[in-house]
Design brief:
By secondary structure, this protein is an alpha+beta fold. It has three domains: 2-66, no CATH class; 73-313, 3-Layer(aba) Sandwich (Rossmann fold); 319-416, Immunoglobulin-like. Helix content is 23%, strand content 30%. It contains ten helices and 24 strands. The strands form six sheets. Strands 5-4-6-7-16-15-12 form a seven-stranded mixed beta sheet, sandwiched between helices. α1 runs parallel beside α2 and α4 (93-108) crosses α10 (300-313). The chain starts with a strand and ends with a strand.
């Protein structure tokens, strides 16, 4: 992966913490970083900017041995180039809201993830992920469908959201989902609304209760903005309700827009469907918690719904990380040395002014202060040794559980197993 970081002379010099955060994030993900700058119109370079660039790269050089190891990923997020080209050809956000929202949800919930491309996906590659998330991937070839069936039959787990597999090869509506056998559901219709709602059972019992973790139970419907479909269970177990939005008379007559979410109206079908196939499972959302997470109407419950689905399908991950939402966790494995590295990157910026138009397109604040936070790392396997590379970090070990107090932009917890 390659990514260039561009800094322009006509911009205010960025704080060192801000520069460190971006550089360490890219390196922790395994990126190759290119720094690009240009001289001002008078031919001079900003000396303060270069002082800070030098300090950031000095840190990167000192930590060089801790970058480039094999990423650990619990969830594979499936990128559908065909869906991008046909569903998102006029409005890219129709697809990218879901794809980017899936990544955002995994980052906020500290679930290690990776990207799986449809163009070079193989069964061997699919097997690397215990859970495969298909975010609003509307178009599938026969080859992809066959791969997914083999993956699930062998014990893999699928999460389907939005209109996944509900469009034809050139974006035309299908009468039935291409993954209907895996989903265990029949497609009734696609909703033409985005402001859709979900209500979970009031007193969930059994394994499905995991889906409601952190979400108020009962008769409370919550907004899950994004594409949705009315589904009927065939072999799947339905859970919860999908509710269509209320529409005023003027909205039904086309005289008033629906950009702003309306309240929930009547239920139209199940919210979630659970299906077992061979040794694996498929969990289908009739809604789009990933799209909701990237939207300007993002609520925490929609994001947690997606994270809970991962934990339902994969209850015993190799590693669990608990930290504030402002902290990103990236896990890598050096198998030869039996060493895990947990990169913790804290983003701490003051709030910015919301613009009067084009919401929410506003740049976040720059990082002026190093954050202080508590994080917990739990491993399924025994820990031989554990350490943090920053001297200021306090690390406490409780068997397979590590607790760290961090006061910096970037920390690396090194675990020998």
């Amino acid at each position: 992966m390659q990514r260039g970081v561009r800094m322009y002379h006509d911009q205010t010099t960025r704080p060192l913490h801000d520069m460190r955060w971006e550089l360490m994030t890219l390196l922790a993900h395994g990126a190759f970083v290119t720094m690009v700058d240009k001289a001002g119109f008078d031919g001079q370079l900003d000396p303060v900017a270069y002082d800070r660039i030098g300090a950031a790269f000095k840190e990167a050089h000192a930590k060089r041995e801790h970058f480039g190891q094999t990423p650990v990923a619990e969830v594979g997020i499936y990128f559908s180039s065909r869906t991008r080209d046909w569903l998102g050809r006029e409005q890219a956000a129709e697809y990218f809201h879901s794809f980017q929202g899936a990544q955002k949800a995994m980052v906020y919930e500290h679930i290690p993830w990776g990207i799986l491309l449809d163009e070079n996906g193989t069964l061997e590659r699919l097997r690397q992920f215990p859970v495969l998330l298909l975010p609003h991937a509307a178009i599938f070839s026969e080859r992809e469908v066959a791969l997914l069936k083999d993956y699930v039959q062998e014990g893999g787990n699928l999460i389907l959201t939005g209109w996944t597999s509900m469009l034809g090869w050139q974006g035309e509506p299908r009468e039935e989902s291409a993954l209907r056998e895996l989903a265990g559901a029949h497609l009734i219709r696609r909703l033409d609304s985005l402001d859709n709602w979900v209500r979970l059972p009031g007193h969930p019992e059994g394994p499905t209760s995991v889906l409601g973790h952190g979400i108020p139970p009962g008769a409370w419907p919550f907004l899950v903005k994004g594409p949705a479909a009315v589904l009927e269970a065939t072999s799947a177990q339905p859970v919860g309700e999908l509710l269509q939005p209320f529409r005023t008379m003027r909205q039904r007559e086309g005289k008033e827009g629906t950009d702003w979410p309306m309240s929930a109206d009547a239920p139209v079908g199940p919210a979630v469907l659970l299906n077992e196939i061979g040794r694996g499972k498929a969990l289908t959302f009739a809604c789009s918690p990933d799209y909701a997470t990237a939207s300007e109407h993002h609520i925490a419950e929609a994001r947690r719904l997606l994270a809970n689905a991962v934990r339902f399908l994969h209850p015993n991950p190799r590693i669990r990380i608990m930290a504030p939402n402002t902290v990103e966790a990236i896990v890598t494995d050096d198998r030869a040395k039996r060493t895990l590295r947990v990169h913790l990157l804290g983003y701490n910026a003051p709030p910015q002014t919301t613009p009067a138009k084009d919401r929410p397109h506003v740049l976040p604040g720059l990082i002026e202060d190093a954050p202080m936070y508590r994080a917990i790392v739990e491993l399924a396997e025994p820990i031989k040794r554990a350490m943090a590379i920053n001297k200021s970090t306090k690390l406490t070990r409780h068997r397979r559980r590590l607790e760290v107090m961090v006061n910096d932009i970037h920390e690396i917890v090194i675990v020998s197993y």
